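To: structure desk
From: M.T.
Subject: fold request, one chain
Message: Could you run this one when you get a chance? Sequence is below, nothing fancy, just the single chain.
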Amino acid sequence: MQGEVGASLVLTLALALPGLAIILAGDPRSGHPKAPSLAYIHVSHRVGVRISRMLGALMILGGMASLALGLVYGVEAQAGFIAVYVVASIPLIVGYSRRLAELESLSHPPEGEPRPVPRLGTTGAALVVGSAVASLSLAVLAFIELHSMQAHIVGLTILAISMAPAYIAYLSLARPEAYASPGLGDDMVRLLQVVSPVSASILASAPSLAVLGVGGWWIASILGFVASAALALAAYMAYR
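Reply: Done. Structure tokens follow.
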């Protein structure tokens, strides 16, 4: 019993402490960023502060709620809740930041002509859509398999995880301006639009492949991490 309580506390702190750090930091744009972040928060200092506070508050509240769930229903239920909560928070944060950015642009119109945001071509769009559909399909199959094994929470967790790359793919196709952070050229923005959802889809496929008994499922994790690391390095070099 003590072991489960300790594990619940660790999961809670893993979500709540970073949230507190984000609130105390105040502005995600502070200093000179060396990795891509959501373009909407770069509209103004005010938008950046409000988004960081909202994100931090969501993480703290989620951590507290997960602790109560873990103490009552166990660590497995808590971990599943955290996965679903984090994935569900992504579109909420993006949508809210986009709305703030729109209001900010109305009250303080940018100087000069706005730079058009590059959109994906046919090949890039096909890669984004194909990877997202494949990841989501594998997650559905894994959910069905786990449901038959009465592992409902694990199945729901895997299904929730696959929603994140699907939403990132939506941003790449319908909201490319989300990637257009200051300091990034058009080529880097296009790279972000393709590699971000594709690498996320590959990573999300790994647990589904493991559940389905596909040998070498760990290869998906390695490929996803390598792609993400390469993208982060490329973005770092672009910001320099």
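Reply (cont.): The chain has a mean pLDDT of 83. Let me know if you need anything else for the meeting.
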